[in-house]
């Protein structure tokens, strides 16, 4: 048995794994999360959280990840051009963008007349990580040659595998939140 790790060499003719401490010890993931070892050698793991919980150890209760409305209209993407759709009557609350053609809010400036509307809404800033928690962001609406013709302040959280957005009604007119 070697005690000097630098002298160890891989042998591809046989499969040998040494025993090391399992990173998925008892109760490492809270709130009924399931631990999944990524590398026994490095001791890395991830927690697969029960719905409604986030964080490295599923320690953060995030009810908005469980209780939200879904925006799923297929024409909410930039592949659709001009239209008269609008989000001015949207009820303030948590929303998830979920369709076969999109999963999250657009986060770069595109021209007007996209997403079946005239004034296209996009997230001005990066999407957060789970560790960031709920973040404040601005949605800009492209119009009249300006990327940020009008603005709305929203909140965003990353859940396990998707994002949720606390949206407010868009400004009056053909303003609509766009997704990718």
Runs in which pLDDT lies below 50 for 5 or more consecutive residues are: 7-20
Helix content class? under 10%
The helix tally amounts to 0
- Separation of the first and last Cα atoms: 54 Å
Got a strand count? Answer: 11
Shape by Cα distribution = elongated
Structure description:
With 180 residues, the chain is mainly beta. The protein has no helices and 11 strands. The strands form 3 sheets. A 7-stranded mixed β-sheet has the order 5-6-10-9-8-7-11, with no helix packed on it. A hairpin with a 2-residue loop joins strand 8 and strand 9. About 8% of the residues have low confidence.
State the main characteristics.
11 strands, two-stranded antiparallel ribbon, 180 residues, mainly beta, elongated, single chain, 0% helix, 7-stranded mixed beta sheet
Break the fold down into its secondary structure elements and pairings.
Elements: E1 34-39, E2 44-48, E3 53-54, E4 60-61, E5 69-71, E6 93-97, E7 119-124, E8 135-143, E9 146-158, E10 163-167, E11 175-177
Parallel strand pairs: 5-6, 7-11
Antiparallel strand pairs: 1-2, 3-4, 6-10, 7-8, 8-9, 9-10
């Amino acid at each position: 048995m070697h005690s000097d790790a630098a002298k160890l060499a891989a042998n591809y003719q046989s499969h040998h794994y040494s025993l090391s401490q399992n990173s998925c010890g008892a109760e490492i993931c809270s709130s009924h999360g399931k631990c999944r070892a990524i590398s026994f050698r490095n001791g890395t793991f991830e927690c697969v959280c029960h719905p409604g919980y986030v964080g490295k150890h599923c320690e953060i209760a995030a009810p908005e990840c469980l209780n939200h409305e879904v925006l799923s209209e297929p024409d909410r993407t930039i592949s659709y051009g001009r239209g008269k759709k609008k989000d001015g009557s949207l009820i303030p609350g948590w929303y998830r963008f979920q369709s076969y053609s999109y999963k999250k809010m657009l986060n770069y400036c595109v021209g007007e007349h996209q997403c079946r509307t005239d004034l296209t809404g996009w997230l001005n800033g990066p999407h957060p990580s789970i560790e960031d928690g709920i973040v404040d962001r601005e949605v800009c609406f492209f119009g009249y040659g300006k990327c940020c013709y009008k603005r709305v302040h929203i909140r965003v959280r990353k859940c396990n595998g998707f994002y949720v957005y606390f949206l407010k009604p868009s400004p009056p007119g053909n303003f609509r939140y766009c997704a990718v």
